[in-house]
Specification:
The protein has helices spanning 2-10, 16-40, 47-59, 71-86, 104-119, 129-135, 140-151, 190-204, 208-226, 231-246, 250-267, 273-288, 292-295, and strands at 153-155, 175-178. The protein is mostly helical. The protein has 2 domains: 2-178, no CATH class; 190-295, Tetratricopeptide repeat domain (Serine Threonine Protein Phosphatase 5, Tetratricopeptide repeat, Alpha Horseshoe). It is elongated. The two termini are 44 Å apart. 28% of the residues are buried.
């Protein structure tokens, strides 16, 4: 129902930001569907080249997107690998290098067809992928991050120039790894969760010390259940630091928030919204402790 939801959101100007999120999710999900079938016919030796070529077709503004290796070279390498493995001379299979024939235009046609078939949604700017994301004011770097998370691609950390029309954005060396993405439900420490929510209730009622004790107990339980590193532990640390700041213990607030920042970097990632929030709180507590240069 995501396509229907996006159409309903488009009719409400006050929900423009939510409409952008829905459109972004539609484009990424359809791109992931195409990417999954695209990877089925890719040889392991050509994995990096195939992924970089797909990303160029999807996000690059270059007018001429070509794989780093030409078709004849890819076929030659595929034939040599298979001949060495089988010990007999067989011509290269065309299906093994089909990925090299993908173009931005053909990829966009597949995405539009997938959007219509899966979600019954059509973009108001069907000319190209770039026209669509420009219309909805989407950022390519955000789309890249979300797509990599959805598909399990790990890329090199560097500045990517998406607007260069004469040079490809991604290269074979930019693809560092690819790992499976498994759908699962995270187990929850129910006792710790109950302590945490009860502590939040006490804080809202104005009983800060009681809330602090309950959340501290929740933190102990989370450490026993999850171990040293977990997103919920970082959340508890952030709440404790905030309570320390409100109660006037700025030094303890700073020390606790530093732990929350380090943990969020490791369990959520340095570019996660929660990590950015942790840094904002750390800047506030650093300023409260007189560390003006550090807070800036």
């Amino acid at each position: 129902y995501l396509g229907k939801l996006a159409a309903m959101l488009a009719a409400v100007p006050q929900l423009k930001y939510l409409h952008k999120i829905a459109v972004s999710e539609l484009l990424l999900r359809s791109s992931k569907h195409i990417f999954t079938s695209y990877m089925q016919g890719t040889e392991l030796m050509s994995l990096s080249a195939a992924i970089s070529h797909f990303l160029n077709c999807l996000l690059s503004s270059s007018s001429a997107v070509h794989p780093q290796l030409n078709l004849e070279e890819l076929q030659s390498k595929t034939a040599k690998r298979r001949n060495k493995r089988k010990g007999r001379n067989n011509g290269p299979l065309q299906s093994e290098v089909e990925w090299a024939s993908l173009t931005p235009k053909s990829l966009w046609q597949q995405i539009k067809a997938d959007l219509k078939a899966y979600y019954d949604w059509e973009t108001p700017y069907p000319e190209s992928f770039d026209a669509t994301i420009d219309h909805f004011n989407l950022q390519k770097v955000s789309l890249l991050r979300s797509f990599c998370i959805k598909t399990g691609i790990q890329i090199l950390l560097r500045e990517y120039n998406f607007e260069n029309k004469n040079r490809a954005t991604f290269f074979e060396e930019d693809i560092l790894n690819i790992f499976p993405v498994v759908k699962h439900i995270n187990p929850r420490a129910s006792d710790a969760y109950n302590f945490y929510t009860t502590g939040q209730g006490k804080i809202q009622q104005g009983y800060l010390k009681d809330g602090y004790e309950l959340i501290s107990e929740a933190l102990n339980l989370l450490n026993n259940v999850y171990g040293a590193m977990h997103p919920e532990i970082a959340q508890c640390l952030r709440m404790l630091a905030r309570l320390n700041y409100i109660m006037g213990d700025h030094g303890e607030a700073l020390a606790t928030q530093q732990k929350a920042v380090l943990m969020s970097e490791r369990v959520n990632g340095i570019d996660h919204p929660y990590t950015i929030t942790e840094y904002i709180h750390l800047a506030l507590y650093s300023f409260a402790n007189g560390q003006v240069s550090v807070s800036l």
